[in-house]
Structures are given as C-alpha cells and as structure tokens.
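re: ur question from earlier - yeah i can do the single chain one, its not a big deal. heres the input i used so u can compare w yours
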Amino acid sequence: MMIFSGKAAPLASTLCAILLLADSSTAQEKGQSSAIKDSSIVQAYTVHSAGDSAAENYRSNYLPKWYDMITRIPGDWVEYSKETFQVKNIPAMVGMAALTAGLIATDYESWQVEKKWYDQSPTFHRVNDWLAFTGDGRFQFGIVGAFALYGFAFNDVRALRTASQTTEAILACGGVVQLLKHITGRESPFVSTKRTGAWRFFPNQIDYAKHVPHYDAFPSGHIATAMTTLIVIAENYPEVTWLKPAGYVALAAISSSLVATGIHWWSDIPLGAALGYAFGEIASHPVGVEFSEGHHSGKAKLSFAPIVYPDGAGVGLTLSF
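and the output i got, formated as tokens:
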C-alpha cells in the first residue's frame, strides 16, 4: 500500500478526483451527452422528459452562481432543521441516541484494542495516520480544488457544480458540527482524564481555544466532512455506481483510524456521519428543485453497532447493498 505524507495529501486528493472524472467521462461516452453550458437559472431550462430523465438533465446543465456556495448556507441550516425535527423522525433520533449511548459504553475497550495495534505496529501506525488525514478538511478541499480546476480547464459544468456544492456542504455541515462541539465539550481519547472522556457542557470558550482536544471530540468533524463530500460527488455522478459502496468502505476505515490515533471515540462517529449525509443531500438538491427518487433505489448503506465479547469490546460495521 502506498502511504502519502501530509505534504503529498493535496496531490493524492487531486488524483482521486481525476480518477473519478475519468471514470465518469467514460460512462458518459456510452450514452447521450448534453451541450448546454449556461443554465444558472433553472426555470429557463425546458424539461423534455419526466422522472429520472428530468433529474439527469438538470444535473447535466445546472450551474450554481459562484457565490451560492456561501449565500445558501443559512438556507441549508433552515432546511436541515425543517427536515430533521419532525414527529416522524422521532424513532430515528431515539435510535441515534441509543446507538451513541451503546457505543459510549464500549468506547474505552474498543479504543484500547486499536491503540495497542497502533502503538505496536509501525505499518498500522502509518496507515492510520494517513487515513485519519483523509478525513481532514484540507484533503476534502483538495478534492474540491481538483474538480474546480478540471471544470475550468474543460468547461465542464458538472465538475464546477460539484466543487461549488461540496464547498457549500462542508461549510454548512461544519457550522453545525462546531456548534455541537462547543456545546458538548467532550475530551478526545488521547487527552482523556476519564475512562470514556470527560464531557464539559458549555465550556469556557477561551479555554476551549487554548486546549481544543480537551473539548472537540463530539461529534466527529472528520467523518462529517468526508461523508458530505462523498454524498455530493455521488449525487452529481450517479452513473459511477461503485462510488458509494467504495466510499462507505473508506469511511469505515477512516472511522477506525480516528479511534486508533486517539482523535475520536467510536461514539463520536454516528452523529458526524448522519450530519454529513444530510448536508450532502441538501447541498446537492437545492430547495425548489424536485428530483426523481429513481436513482436512490438499491443504494448502499453503512451501519454501526457496539459489540461485546468475552475478551473485550468493539464496533461492528455493516455495509449493505
């Protein structure tokens, strides 16, 4: 396995984006391509077919204005609140709380297992350092930059839209993640003073700024950022059918690396993933534009569950198609 240093990470993220763009270009050559370049006003576009064809036509031709990635963020927060805090979502919220609580109960044991491997194996150490970095915002913005450069170089509307919506999703999701971090004040494993990390709700903000790892574990911003990037790209390139399954496998590996390196507990992961998914969907489906649900059928799903066994505890990951 090739391991990249922090300085080579922008190159690595650029290569990832180029490979995806090359794959999507190959897929597009097998079907019909669209030549409409200026379609920033959705209403000006005439839909020639219904259902999935209309959704596909929209994706092929819609280009946000350059400032939409910033000005849409408040609307994204409103949309997230409207979609999340509904009576019908109470079972899902209870389930998220129960899953997080279950993982908290096994956090220390699962961290110790991975920490032992991380401390004893140089290869495991290097691999997990790299994986943890791929969840960092710098890596995700490297991917954004690659899409933007490709879009400008080849006048590719879809690549430019992907760059814009990914930036929007990262910033909108990041705002909510940071708010929750500043409210919950949970310790990261590597600085923990209690078995599963102390929780200091509404911490002193000056102390927070001086000792960030003592307060910013929950929820995981790494996973939120990586997830929201994956979702926006996958929604813009639905013909790349391997992207979500492969992406969820990568997210599981990143999650494990965040625990191994002591940056996060396993219980920090589910809410971060849920936030990333939600804002990725919101950013890639602007309010006021309807989409067919056809391209969502059979989508891959990633789930977490705490596992307790005679010699310790851990986390089970399930990828379903």
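The radius of gyration is 20 Å. not sure if urs matches, ping me
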